[in-house]
Protein backbone atom coordinates (compact mmCIF):
# COMPACT_ATOMS: atom_id res chain seq x y z
CA UNK A 1 0.00 0.00 0.00
CA UNK A 2 1.47 3.32 -1.05
CA UNK A 3 1.85 6.05 1.52
CA UNK A 4 -0.29 9.16 1.16
CA UNK A 5 1.92 12.13 0.27
CA UNK A 6 1.51 14.93 2.82
CA UNK A 7 3.10 18.32 3.36
CA UNK A 8 4.59 19.47 6.63
CA UNK A 9 3.49 22.76 8.21
CA UNK A 10 6.78 24.32 7.14
CA UNK A 11 6.21 23.29 3.52
CA UNK A 12 2.63 24.62 3.63
CA UNK A 13 3.94 27.94 4.97
CA UNK A 14 6.38 28.08 2.06
CA UNK A 15 3.72 27.20 -0.53
CA UNK A 16 1.13 29.71 0.68
CA UNK A 17 3.81 32.33 1.31
CA UNK A 18 5.01 32.06 -2.30
CA UNK A 19 1.43 32.15 -3.61
CA UNK A 20 0.76 35.13 -1.35
CA UNK A 21 3.82 36.90 -2.78
CA UNK A 22 2.65 36.31 -6.36
CA UNK A 23 -0.94 37.47 -5.77
CA UNK A 24 0.16 40.42 -3.62
CA UNK A 25 2.55 41.50 -6.38
CA UNK A 26 -0.34 41.48 -8.87
CA UNK A 27 -2.43 43.56 -6.44
CA UNK A 28 0.44 46.06 -6.11
CA UNK A 29 0.52 46.32 -9.92
CA UNK A 30 -3.25 46.88 -10.22
CA UNK A 31 -3.00 50.72 -10.28
CA UNK A 32 -0.53 50.68 -13.22
CA UNK A 33 -3.19 51.68 -15.81
CA UNK A 34 -4.11 54.66 -13.61
CA UNK A 35 -0.52 55.87 -13.42
CA UNK A 36 0.06 55.19 -17.11
CA UNK A 37 -2.87 57.50 -17.79
CA UNK A 38 -1.48 60.12 -15.38
CA UNK A 39 1.92 60.05 -17.10
CA UNK A 40 0.40 60.14 -20.57
CA UNK A 41 -1.89 63.09 -19.82
CA UNK A 42 0.58 64.73 -17.40
CA UNK A 43 -2.12 65.32 -14.83
CA UNK A 44 -3.36 63.47 -11.75
CA UNK A 45 -6.91 63.80 -13.19
CA UNK A 46 -8.47 64.25 -9.77
CA UNK A 47 -7.24 60.89 -8.42
CA UNK A 48 -6.57 60.79 -4.69
CA UNK A 49 -3.21 59.85 -3.17
CA UNK A 50 -4.64 58.49 0.10
CA UNK A 51 -4.86 54.80 -1.02
CA UNK A 52 -1.16 54.80 -1.92
CA UNK A 53 -0.13 56.57 1.29
CA UNK A 54 -2.07 53.94 3.29
CA UNK A 55 -0.63 51.07 1.22
CA UNK A 56 2.90 52.36 1.81
CA UNK A 57 2.37 52.56 5.58
CA UNK A 58 0.91 49.03 5.61
CA UNK A 59 3.91 47.68 3.66
CA UNK A 60 6.40 49.46 5.93
CA UNK A 61 4.77 48.18 9.12
CA UNK A 62 4.64 44.62 7.80
CA UNK A 63 8.26 44.89 6.66
CA UNK A 64 9.26 45.93 10.18
CA UNK A 65 7.22 43.03 11.58
CA UNK A 66 8.93 40.61 9.19
CA UNK A 67 12.37 41.86 10.25
CA UNK A 68 11.52 41.26 13.91
CA UNK A 69 9.91 37.87 13.34
CA UNK A 70 12.04 34.77 12.78
CA UNK A 71 11.82 32.89 9.46
CA UNK A 72 9.70 35.56 7.79
CA UNK A 73 11.62 36.04 4.55
CA UNK A 74 8.42 35.83 2.46
CA UNK A 75 6.84 38.65 4.47
CA UNK A 76 10.00 40.71 4.02
CA UNK A 77 10.33 40.15 0.26
CA UNK A 78 6.80 41.12 -0.76
CA UNK A 79 6.70 44.16 1.50
CA UNK A 80 10.09 45.38 0.26
CA UNK A 81 8.66 45.18 -3.25
CA UNK A 82 5.46 46.85 -2.06
CA UNK A 83 7.37 49.74 -0.48
CA UNK A 84 9.31 50.37 -3.71
CA UNK A 85 6.18 50.23 -5.89
CA UNK A 86 4.13 52.52 -3.63
CA UNK A 87 7.00 55.04 -3.39
CA UNK A 88 7.18 55.11 -7.20
CA UNK A 89 3.42 55.64 -7.43
CA UNK A 90 3.61 58.54 -4.98
CA UNK A 91 6.56 60.12 -6.80
CA UNK A 92 4.64 60.02 -10.09
CA UNK A 93 1.55 61.41 -8.36
CA UNK A 94 3.48 64.30 -6.79
CA UNK A 95 5.16 65.15 -10.12
CA UNK A 96 1.87 65.51 -12.00
CA UNK A 97 -0.52 66.65 -9.25
CA UNK A 98 -1.60 70.32 -8.91
CA UNK A 99 0.33 72.36 -6.35
CA UNK A 100 -2.36 72.03 -3.67
CA UNK A 101 -2.44 68.22 -3.99
CA UNK A 102 1.36 68.06 -4.04
CA UNK A 103 1.49 69.82 -0.67
CA UNK A 104 -1.32 67.73 0.87
CA UNK A 105 0.25 64.48 -0.36
CA UNK A 106 3.67 65.39 1.00
CA UNK A 107 2.01 66.29 4.32
CA UNK A 108 0.23 62.92 4.37
CA UNK A 109 3.48 61.07 3.68
CA UNK A 110 5.24 63.01 6.43
CA UNK A 111 2.51 62.56 9.04
CA UNK A 112 1.04 59.14 8.19
CA UNK A 113 3.95 57.19 6.71
CA UNK A 114 7.07 58.65 8.33
CA UNK A 115 5.21 59.70 11.48
CA UNK A 116 3.31 56.42 11.82
CA UNK A 117 6.38 54.27 11.29
CA UNK A 118 8.51 56.53 13.49
CA UNK A 119 6.00 56.41 16.33
CA UNK A 120 5.84 52.61 16.05
CA UNK A 121 9.65 52.39 16.19
CA UNK A 122 9.83 54.67 19.23
CA UNK A 123 7.11 52.85 21.16
CA UNK A 124 8.36 49.34 20.40
CA UNK A 125 12.05 50.11 20.96
CA UNK A 126 11.93 52.38 23.99
CA UNK A 127 8.74 51.42 25.81
CA UNK A 128 8.04 47.74 25.00
CA UNK A 129 10.45 45.12 26.33
CA UNK A 130 12.42 43.29 23.65
CA UNK A 131 10.67 39.97 24.36
CA UNK A 132 7.24 41.49 23.57
CA UNK A 133 8.40 43.68 20.67
CA UNK A 134 7.43 41.33 17.87
CA UNK A 135 4.00 40.82 19.47
CA UNK A 136 3.46 44.57 19.84
CA UNK A 137 4.35 45.23 16.21
CA UNK A 138 2.25 42.26 15.09
CA UNK A 139 -0.73 43.64 17.00
CA UNK A 140 -0.26 47.10 15.45
CA UNK A 141 -0.10 45.52 11.97
CA UNK A 142 -3.22 43.44 12.65
CA UNK A 143 -5.24 46.45 13.87
CA UNK A 144 -4.10 48.57 10.93
CA UNK A 145 -4.87 45.82 8.41
CA UNK A 146 -8.35 45.31 9.89
CA UNK A 147 -8.99 49.03 9.38
CA UNK A 148 -7.71 48.79 5.79
CA UNK A 149 -9.88 45.74 5.05
CA UNK A 150 -12.91 47.57 6.49
CA UNK A 151 -12.35 50.57 4.19
CA UNK A 152 -14.32 49.04 1.24
CA UNK A 153 -17.51 49.22 3.35
CA UNK A 154 -18.06 52.74 2.02
CA UNK A 155 -17.68 51.51 -1.57
CA UNK A 156 -20.07 48.61 -0.91
CA UNK A 157 -22.62 51.06 0.49
CA UNK A 158 -22.21 53.21 -2.62
CA UNK A 159 -22.78 50.18 -4.86
CA UNK A 160 -26.02 49.35 -3.04
CA UNK A 161 -27.20 52.96 -3.07
CA UNK A 162 -26.39 53.71 -6.72
CA UNK A 163 -27.00 50.18 -8.00
CA UNK A 164 -23.77 50.56 -9.97
CA UNK A 165 -20.47 48.64 -9.73
CA UNK A 166 -18.51 51.32 -11.60
CA UNK A 167 -16.18 51.96 -8.66
CA UNK A 168 -15.75 48.32 -7.61
CA UNK A 169 -13.93 46.34 -10.33
CA UNK A 170 -14.61 42.60 -10.09
CA UNK A 171 -11.07 41.40 -10.82
CA UNK A 172 -9.55 43.69 -8.19
CA UNK A 173 -12.01 42.27 -5.62
CA UNK A 174 -11.13 38.76 -6.82
CA UNK A 175 -7.37 39.29 -6.44
CA UNK A 176 -7.80 40.91 -3.02
CA UNK A 177 -9.87 37.89 -1.92
CA UNK A 178 -7.23 35.48 -3.25
CA UNK A 179 -4.54 37.52 -1.52
CA UNK A 180 -6.38 37.38 1.81
CA UNK A 181 -6.90 33.61 1.36
CA UNK A 182 -3.21 32.90 0.69
CA UNK A 183 -2.04 34.93 3.69
CA UNK A 184 -4.73 33.43 5.93
CA UNK A 185 -3.37 29.93 5.24
CA UNK A 186 0.18 31.21 5.60
CA UNK A 187 -0.70 32.54 9.08
CA UNK A 188 -2.63 29.36 9.92
CA UNK A 189 0.23 26.98 9.16
CA UNK A 190 2.82 29.37 10.59
CA UNK A 191 0.67 29.75 13.74
CA UNK A 192 0.82 33.52 13.31
CA UNK A 193 -2.45 35.07 14.50
CA UNK A 194 -1.32 38.57 13.53
CA UNK A 195 -1.25 37.51 9.88
CA UNK A 196 -4.11 34.99 9.98
CA UNK A 197 -6.93 36.86 11.76
CA UNK A 198 -7.02 40.13 9.74
CA UNK A 199 -7.13 38.11 6.53
CA UNK A 200 -10.29 36.34 7.69
CA UNK A 201 -11.95 39.74 7.54
CA UNK A 202 -10.26 40.47 4.21
CA UNK A 203 -11.64 37.23 2.77
CA UNK A 204 -15.19 37.93 4.02
CA UNK A 205 -15.21 41.48 2.65
CA UNK A 206 -13.75 40.27 -0.65
CA UNK A 207 -16.45 37.61 -1.04
CA UNK A 208 -19.11 40.20 -0.12
CA UNK A 209 -17.80 42.58 -2.80
CA UNK A 210 -17.91 39.88 -5.47
CA UNK A 211 -21.47 38.90 -4.48
CA UNK A 212 -22.52 42.56 -4.68
CA UNK A 213 -20.87 42.81 -8.09
CA UNK A 214 -22.84 39.82 -9.39
CA UNK A 215 -26.09 41.23 -7.96
CA UNK A 216 -25.70 44.77 -9.28
CA UNK A 217 -23.55 44.40 -12.41
CA UNK A 218 -26.62 44.74 -14.69
CA UNK A 219 -28.95 46.53 -12.29
CA UNK A 220 -28.27 50.04 -13.58
CA UNK A 221 -28.82 48.97 -17.19
CA UNK A 222 -32.14 47.37 -16.24
CA UNK A 223 -33.27 50.52 -14.44
CA UNK A 224 -32.34 52.69 -17.44
CA UNK A 225 -34.06 50.29 -19.85
CA UNK A 226 -37.27 50.24 -17.81
CA UNK A 227 -37.14 54.02 -17.45
CA UNK A 228 -36.77 54.47 -21.22
CA UNK A 229 -39.59 52.02 -21.82
CA UNK A 230 -41.84 53.95 -19.48
CA UNK A 231 -41.02 57.24 -21.19
CA UNK A 232 -41.96 55.64 -24.50
CA UNK A 233 -45.27 54.07 -23.42
CA UNK A 234 -46.17 55.86 -20.21
CA UNK A 235 -48.19 58.64 -21.83
CA UNK A 236 -50.71 56.12 -23.14
CA UNK A 237 -51.65 54.89 -19.67
CA UNK A 238 -52.12 57.41 -16.91
CA UNK A 239 -52.36 54.59 -14.32
CA UNK A 240 -48.76 53.34 -14.85
CA UNK A 241 -46.55 53.47 -11.76
CA UNK A 242 -43.55 55.81 -11.68
CA UNK A 243 -40.71 53.26 -11.85
CA UNK A 244 -37.88 55.68 -10.95
CA UNK A 245 -39.78 56.65 -7.81
CA UNK A 246 -40.02 53.00 -6.76
CA UNK A 247 -36.28 52.54 -7.28
CA UNK A 248 -35.52 55.71 -5.30
CA UNK A 249 -37.74 54.50 -2.44
CA UNK A 250 -35.90 51.16 -2.31
CA UNK A 251 -32.56 52.94 -2.26
CA UNK A 252 -33.67 55.08 0.67
CA UNK A 253 -34.69 51.95 2.61
CA UNK A 254 -31.21 50.49 2.11
* Overall pLDDT confidence: 84
CATH architecture: Up-down Bundle
Structural class: mainly alpha
User: What percentage of amino acids are in beta strands?
Assistant: under 5%
Keywords:
254 residues, mainly alpha, Bidirectional sugar transporter SWEET, single chain, cell membrane, Monooxygenase, sucrose transmembrane transporter activity
What can you tell me about this protein's structure?
It is a single chain. This protein has 254 residues and is mainly α. It has eleven helices and no strands. It has one domain (9-217): Monooxygenase (Up-down Bundle), CATH 1.20.1280. 80% of the residues lie in helices and 0% in strands. Helix 1 packs antiparallel against helix 8 and helix 6 (130-150) runs parallel beside helix 9 (193-216). The protein is globular. The chain crosses the membrane at residues 12-38, 50-67, 73-96, 108-128, 134-155, 167-189, 195-216. It comes from Cicer arietinum. Its main location: membrane.
Amino acid sequence: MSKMFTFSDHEMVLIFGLLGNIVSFLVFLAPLPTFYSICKKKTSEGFQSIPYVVALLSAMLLLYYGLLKTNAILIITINCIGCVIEVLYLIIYIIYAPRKLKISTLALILVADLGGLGLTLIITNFIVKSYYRVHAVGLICAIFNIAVFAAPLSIMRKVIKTRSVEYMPFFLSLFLTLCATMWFFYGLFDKDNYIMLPNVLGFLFGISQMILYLIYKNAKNKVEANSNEQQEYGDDDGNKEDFPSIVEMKENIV
